[in-house]
Amino acid sequence: MTDDVLLELSVTLGERLKGIGATLTCAESCTGGLIAKAITDISGSSSYFERGYVTYSNEAKHEMLGVTHESLQLYGAVSEAVVNEMAQGALKVAHADFAVSVSGIAGPDGGSVAKPVGTVWFGFAAKDGRAYAIRQYFPGGRLQVRQLAAEFALRVLIEKFL
Protein backbone atom coordinates (compact mmCIF):
# COMPACT_ATOMS: atom_id res chain seq x y z
CA MET A 1 0.00 0.00 0.00
CA THR A 2 2.53 2.49 -1.14
CA ASP A 3 2.93 4.87 -4.01
CA ASP A 4 5.31 2.27 -5.49
CA VAL A 5 2.44 -0.22 -5.77
CA LEU A 6 0.25 2.33 -7.54
CA LEU A 7 3.12 3.18 -9.86
CA GLU A 8 3.75 -0.47 -10.71
CA LEU A 9 0.06 -1.13 -11.33
CA SER A 10 -0.25 2.01 -13.46
CA VAL A 11 2.70 0.98 -15.61
CA THR A 12 1.22 -2.49 -16.15
CA LEU A 13 -2.20 -1.05 -16.91
CA GLY A 14 -0.72 1.38 -19.43
CA GLU A 15 1.26 -1.34 -21.17
CA ARG A 16 -1.85 -3.50 -21.49
CA LEU A 17 -4.00 -0.64 -22.82
CA LYS A 18 -1.32 0.41 -25.32
CA GLY A 19 -0.90 -3.20 -26.39
CA ILE A 20 -4.52 -3.42 -27.50
CA GLY A 21 -4.91 0.21 -28.58
CA ALA A 22 -7.61 0.91 -26.00
CA THR A 23 -8.56 3.88 -23.85
CA LEU A 24 -9.70 4.19 -20.26
CA THR A 25 -11.77 6.66 -18.28
CA CYS A 26 -12.53 6.77 -14.58
CA ALA A 27 -15.31 8.16 -12.43
CA GLU A 28 -14.21 8.67 -8.85
CA SER A 29 -15.92 9.73 -5.70
CA CYS A 30 -14.17 8.71 -2.47
CA THR A 31 -10.76 8.39 -4.16
CA GLY A 32 -11.00 12.01 -5.28
CA GLY A 33 -8.95 11.58 -8.45
CA LEU A 34 -6.28 9.30 -7.00
CA ILE A 35 -6.84 6.68 -9.71
CA ALA A 36 -6.52 9.28 -12.47
CA LYS A 37 -3.42 10.70 -10.79
CA ALA A 38 -1.77 7.29 -10.58
CA ILE A 39 -2.47 6.61 -14.25
CA THR A 40 -1.32 10.03 -15.44
CA ASP A 41 1.88 9.83 -13.39
CA ILE A 42 3.09 7.62 -16.24
CA SER A 43 4.70 9.42 -19.15
CA GLY A 44 2.76 8.80 -22.35
CA SER A 45 -0.50 8.02 -20.56
CA SER A 46 -2.32 10.49 -22.80
CA SER A 47 -2.30 7.79 -25.47
CA TYR A 48 -4.61 5.58 -23.42
CA PHE A 49 -6.15 7.68 -20.63
CA GLU A 50 -9.10 9.57 -22.08
CA ARG A 51 -10.28 11.60 -19.09
CA GLY A 52 -11.37 11.34 -15.49
CA TYR A 53 -14.37 12.55 -13.55
CA VAL A 54 -14.29 13.40 -9.86
CA THR A 55 -17.96 13.29 -8.99
CA TYR A 56 -17.93 13.75 -5.27
CA SER A 57 -21.47 15.05 -4.84
CA ASN A 58 -24.65 13.28 -5.87
CA GLU A 59 -25.49 16.15 -8.18
CA ALA A 60 -22.14 15.81 -9.95
CA LYS A 61 -22.79 12.08 -10.40
CA HIS A 62 -26.13 12.96 -11.97
CA GLU A 63 -25.05 15.92 -14.10
CA MET A 64 -21.72 14.59 -15.39
CA LEU A 65 -22.40 10.85 -15.63
CA GLY A 66 -26.17 10.48 -15.85
CA VAL A 67 -26.63 8.65 -12.55
CA THR A 68 -30.36 8.73 -11.87
CA HIS A 69 -31.80 10.57 -8.90
CA GLU A 70 -33.88 7.46 -8.29
CA SER A 71 -30.81 5.24 -7.80
CA LEU A 72 -29.18 7.81 -5.55
CA GLN A 73 -32.30 8.06 -3.39
CA LEU A 74 -33.15 4.36 -3.30
CA TYR A 75 -29.67 2.89 -2.82
CA GLY A 76 -27.39 5.77 -1.85
CA ALA A 77 -24.18 6.89 -3.52
CA VAL A 78 -22.25 3.94 -2.09
CA SER A 79 -24.09 1.16 -3.89
CA GLU A 80 -23.87 -1.31 -6.73
CA ALA A 81 -26.53 0.51 -8.73
CA VAL A 82 -24.74 3.85 -8.52
CA VAL A 83 -21.26 2.58 -9.40
CA ASN A 84 -22.73 0.68 -12.35
CA GLU A 85 -24.40 3.88 -13.59
CA MET A 86 -21.21 5.85 -12.97
CA ALA A 87 -19.11 3.40 -15.01
CA GLN A 88 -21.62 3.22 -17.85
CA GLY A 89 -22.02 7.00 -17.87
CA ALA A 90 -18.28 7.62 -17.93
CA LEU A 91 -17.81 5.08 -20.70
CA LYS A 92 -20.46 6.84 -22.78
CA VAL A 93 -19.48 10.47 -22.25
CA ALA A 94 -15.72 9.84 -22.55
CA HIS A 95 -16.06 7.60 -25.63
CA ALA A 96 -13.56 5.24 -24.01
CA ASP A 97 -13.11 1.49 -24.31
CA PHE A 98 -13.01 0.83 -20.56
CA ALA A 99 -14.30 2.61 -17.46
CA VAL A 100 -13.84 2.21 -13.73
CA SER A 101 -15.95 3.89 -11.07
CA VAL A 102 -15.59 4.04 -7.32
CA SER A 103 -17.80 5.29 -4.51
CA GLY A 104 -17.22 4.63 -0.85
CA ILE A 105 -16.97 5.82 2.71
CA ALA A 106 -13.37 6.72 3.47
CA GLY A 107 -14.17 8.18 6.89
CA PRO A 108 -13.67 9.02 9.55
CA ASP A 109 -17.32 10.17 9.39
CA GLY A 110 -20.21 9.01 7.25
CA GLY A 111 -20.37 5.34 8.11
CA SER A 112 -23.41 3.42 9.31
CA VAL A 113 -24.19 -0.10 10.48
CA ALA A 114 -25.15 -1.10 6.92
CA LYS A 115 -22.24 0.76 5.32
CA PRO A 116 -19.38 1.16 7.77
CA VAL A 117 -16.36 3.36 7.12
CA GLY A 118 -14.13 1.47 4.70
CA THR A 119 -17.00 0.23 2.52
CA VAL A 120 -16.23 0.88 -1.15
CA TRP A 121 -18.16 -0.13 -4.28
CA PHE A 122 -16.44 -0.45 -7.65
CA GLY A 123 -17.98 -0.54 -11.11
CA PHE A 124 -16.21 -1.64 -14.28
CA ALA A 125 -17.54 -1.40 -17.82
CA ALA A 126 -16.19 -2.14 -21.27
CA LYS A 127 -17.35 -0.93 -24.66
CA ASP A 128 -17.88 -4.57 -25.66
CA GLY A 129 -20.65 -4.84 -23.05
CA ARG A 130 -18.76 -6.48 -20.20
CA ALA A 131 -19.60 -5.06 -16.79
CA TYR A 132 -18.68 -5.97 -13.26
CA ALA A 133 -19.38 -4.52 -9.83
CA ILE A 134 -17.94 -5.51 -6.50
CA ARG A 135 -18.01 -4.26 -2.93
CA GLN A 136 -14.92 -4.30 -0.75
CA TYR A 137 -14.13 -3.31 2.80
CA PHE A 138 -10.78 -1.68 3.55
CA PRO A 139 -9.61 -1.19 7.14
CA GLY A 140 -7.68 1.85 8.28
CA GLY A 141 -7.91 5.58 8.17
CA ARG A 142 -9.09 7.82 5.37
CA LEU A 143 -5.82 7.88 3.44
CA GLN A 144 -5.36 4.12 3.70
CA VAL A 145 -8.92 3.41 2.51
CA ARG A 146 -8.43 5.68 -0.49
CA GLN A 147 -5.03 4.20 -1.34
CA LEU A 148 -6.27 0.61 -1.07
CA ALA A 149 -9.34 1.46 -3.16
CA ALA A 150 -7.19 2.92 -5.95
CA GLU A 151 -4.91 -0.12 -5.91
CA PHE A 152 -7.88 -2.49 -6.00
CA ALA A 153 -9.44 -0.67 -8.97
CA LEU A 154 -6.23 -0.91 -11.01
CA ARG A 155 -5.75 -4.58 -10.10
CA VAL A 156 -9.25 -5.52 -11.23
CA LEU A 157 -8.84 -3.65 -14.50
CA ILE A 158 -5.61 -5.54 -15.19
CA GLU A 159 -6.80 -8.97 -14.02
CA LYS A 160 -10.40 -9.05 -15.25
CA PHE A 161 -10.52 -6.70 -18.22
CA LEU A 162 -7.09 -6.53 -19.87
TrEMBL record:
Pfam families: CinA. Signal peptide: none annotated. Residues 9-159 form the CinA C-terminal domain. It comes from the Bacteria. This is CinA C-terminal domain-containing protein.
